[in-house]
């Protein structure tokens, strides 16, 4: 309980999207993959433990601004991590400090070997949550899908990265009312970044201009087509019991297309 409270408090509740509710939502989705999708049959207990913790901390302390903005403005985080996944490196570091500090140390009873496995899975999955690494994550998983070996630590690591990536972008495959809520939250956060970019006189990032009325449906359709569908189709191919995500994806895309058509009229 102390650990969970510490993690919750380290998120910025003022963020419309990247807050503890998002972390909890991603964790719930991972649990769905593990149990309903039977992903746990392909992992060991330490993997599962590390993945659950990774989903909880994967966006901890998020400032509500993306990596591109941090790099462009030469922020403290971008400088600290040499412009390489500054947010994800920060989340890893911040989460690990809570995991290992007195009072919230949830791995103190692990053996040295288990601790090393836990840390490797945790850091690799959180770091791979960088949107810039989506194609890499998909490609690596495709390379092991047809000959997956549970006894292979490298295979389990790749699978863990894939599962967290799918869970992190699972909002568009929820039932539409839930999906729309999260879409509106991320749009609100994007608009706040767009406002900062306008104030700084730098180009406003795609989908972050609040003066574009069709931004939300267009953003969702693009995200579904180029990110969520490639991930979801491979998820269902490997874990058939998660097939409802593709049904929701198709239904939601149709609905967003209607929203876009109406916004353009």
Total E-strand runs: 0
| Straight-line distance between termini | 51 Å
Main sheet record: none
Report the portion of residues in β strands.
Answer: under 5%
What is the averaged pLDDT score?
Answer: 96
Helix segment count?
12
What structural category characterises the helix and strand content?
A: mainly alpha
- Unreliable residue runs: none
- Residues in helices, as a percent range: 55-70%
Q: What is the 3D shape?
A: globular
Order of helices and strands: HHHHHHHHHHHH
What would you report as the Rg, rounded to the nearest angstrom?
A: 19 Å
Short description:
This protein is an all-alpha fold and 265 residues long. It has 12 helices and no strands. Helices cover 66% and strands 0% of the residues.
Task: Give an account of the 3D structure.
- Helices cover 66% and strands 0% of the residues.
- By secondary structure, it is mainly alpha-helical.
- The longest helix is centred in the last third of the chain and has 25 residues, at 176-200.
- The chain is globular.
């Amino acid at each position: 309980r102390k650990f969970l409270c510490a993690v919750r408090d380290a998120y910025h509740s003022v963020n419309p999207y990247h807050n503890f509710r998002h972390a909890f939502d991603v964790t719930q989705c991972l649990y769905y993959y593990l149990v309903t999708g039977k992903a746990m049959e392909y992992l060991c207990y330490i993997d599962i433990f590390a993945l659950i913790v990774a989903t909880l901390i994967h966006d901890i302390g998020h400032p509500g601004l993306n990596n591109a903005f941090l790099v462009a403005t030469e922020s403290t985080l971008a400088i600290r991590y040499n412009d390489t996944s500054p947010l994800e490196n920060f989340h890893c570091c911040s989460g690990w400090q809570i995991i290992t500090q007195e009072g919230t140390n949830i791995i103190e009873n692990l053996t040295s070997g288990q601790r090393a496995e836990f840390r490797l899975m945790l850091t690799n999955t959180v770091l791979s949550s960088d949107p810039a690494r989506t194609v890499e994550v998909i490609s690596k998983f495709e390379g092991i899908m047809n000959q997956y070996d549970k006894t292979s630590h490298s295979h389990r690591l790749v699978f863990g990265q894939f599962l967290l990536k799918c869970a992190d972008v699972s909002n568009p495959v929820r039932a539409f009312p839930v999906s729309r809520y999260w879409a509106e939250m991320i749009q609100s956060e994007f608009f706040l970044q767009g406002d900062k970019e306008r104030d700084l006189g730098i180009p406003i990032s795609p989908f972050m201009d609040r003066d574009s009325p069709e931004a939300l449906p267009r953003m969702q359709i693009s995200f579904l087509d180029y990110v969520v569908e490639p991930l979801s189709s491979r998820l269902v191919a490997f874990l058939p019991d998660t097939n409802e995500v593709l049904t929701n994806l198709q239904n939601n895309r149709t609905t967003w297309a209607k929203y876009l058509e109406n916004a353009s009229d």
